[in-house]
Amino acid sequence: MADAVPFVDCSDILSTLNPEQLAAVTAANRGSLLVLAGAGCGKTAVLTRRIVYLTRLGIPAGRICALTFSRKAALEMAHRLAKLDPSCVGANAPLVTTFHAFALRVLLARYKGVRNFSRIGFDGDAQLLDGKERFNLMAQASSARVRKSLRMGIVELGGALDLLSTFPEKAARKWDGEELKLLAKIGHDFSALRKARGLWDFSDLICGGLELFSKHPEVAADWSGRFDAVLVDEFQDTNPMQIDMLDILLRPGSSLYAVGDDDQAIYGFRGADIRPIRNFTARFRDARIVKLQINYRSVTAILDCANRLWANKPAEYRKTLVSGLKTQPAGCRKPKTMRFSAQGQALEWILGRARFIARRENIPIGEMAVLFRINDTLSAVSERYKNMGLSSEGIPQLLTVHASKGLEYPVVFLCDLEEGVFPHYKLPKESSIDSWVEFVRTVVKPQPNPAASCDIDEELRLFYVGVTRAQRYLFFVTVSKKQFYGRETKFVPSRFLKLVK
Predict the structure, then answer these.
(1) Separation in Å, CA 246 to CA 62, 111, 209, 289
(2) If pLDDT is split at 50, 70 and 90, which confidence band does 50 have?
(3) Closest alpha carbon to 94 in 48, 45, 31, 37
(4) CA geometry: angle at 99 spanning 228 and 401, to 5°?
(5) Fewest C-beta atoms under 10 Å: which of 164, 228, 233, 376?
């Protein structure tokens, strides 16, 4: 029997929702709910209306916590809430913040008169560590000899320490036992130096919050007792420490409302972990899944292309996007693949096609986008267009696919679609063969597969993000030869192009 829900007049926030969105907003407030929100399906509208809906059901706004990943997203959510309902403004408004800002709030707070920062070893008022100071302290925590033995510079060492703290199992696969011991010691000494000087960086915030809650259960109980409902935006981008923080906040009787899209999980290189969203029903208590699949961004031809990428995905998580547009704009055709022998030819064609569509459809060129997998190509193309004397108004926007997430464009040229570039992995170096012995070695010795180090699943998700940025026109662009990290390189078309035929 379904949970009884008291009648509350919510027509002002529900009347414009489609059936899927309505089901997601009004789902019973118990246990854990994952809203699998397809690209362009209105996840922010659902998330903000869910918060207002909970307040209308009687949950005090101040006992609702909404967590997201960027300050910009948090401000946008707070702004939308204020427009939806005046009760979501002011001192008793829901707490809408980022994971890091939430952890900082906890550490800056006092419990029974004692500053929480001091409970985990920071003296005085902890100050933010800037980039230069971070490198200086890291250099003090290690020696040139140790860094040389690890084959790491300071920047690489920082990344290694972040990986070790966030994904110890990945670190264990990447480095041997002695290297792990060295890294662990450097991490310990680096942390001790920061604490002694009252300095913290962003990696300290959530780690520090978890350390505080672990060492002081009474503080953890105080914070978990403050919220009846916890909502998380972009759930696919959470890392293990953020999930641990959620576990602490989710006391018995409180609810979790997670919104995300596993098909758009593209930040594994930053420590994001796709497992909590992929294993949601097993990971969280009393868990359910609802889906948003009506897309208000793209024409049907583009959505059909996007759906083909996930044809073999398990049904529980597979989303089939359908267009919610009332009319399909005339002139929009199936996404087209364009092959060129050289990069220059591709760039000239893109410019010509952009101008043609601009004249025919009255779409300003500056509202179109050219998307790249790597910054190296983006920089080269920007320089070429600059040398041609083109103003920024006369060319489409140039950006990476990562930077395009969350954005949309009427016309998209998706470039870098060469094997080794997108999907991205290190190509083998061309070696000269100077003797018969060397020739025999190249034939007999098994050659390593360069694509083995590539996270092909994440690369496919990144390709999906690029596809779903397009509203009306989408072109796939691949070339046979271009500059790749400083040298002229020959390519074959990306394997992804076979999926969108």
Answers:
(1) 18, 20, 11, 18
(2) very high
(3) 48
(4) 125
(5) 376
pLDDT digit string (tens) for 63-80?
A: 999 999 889 999 999 999
Query: What's the token pair of residue 23?
Result: 């089901």
Q: Which of 304, 318, 295 shows the shortest CA–CA distance to 500? A: 304
3-state secondary structure of 21: helix
Q: How many CA atoms lie within 13 A of 164 on its CB side?
A: 19
Report pLDDT digits (tens) over 190-227: 988 887 887 887 777 898 899 999 999 999 999 999 99
* Cβ 243 vs Cβ 271: under 8 Å: no
Question: Which among 289, 241, 258, 133 has a CA at the least distance from the CA of 197?
Answer: 133
Contact at 8 Å (CB) between 333 and 374?
A: no
432/313 Cα distance (integer angstroms):
43
* 365-375 b/e (C-beta count within 10 Å ≥ 16 → b): beebbbbbbbe
Alpha-carbon distance 241 to 271, whole Å? 10
Contacts for 150 with CB less than 8 Å, ≥ 6 apart: 157, 160, 179, 182, 183
Six token digits for residue 321: 């996007």
Is the separation of the CB atoms in 488 and 482 below 8 Å?
A: yes
Looking only at the bridges linking them, the beta strands covering 481-484 and 487-490 are antiparallel
The pLDDT of residue 395: 95
Nearest CA among 51, 390, 442, 151 for reference residue 398: 390
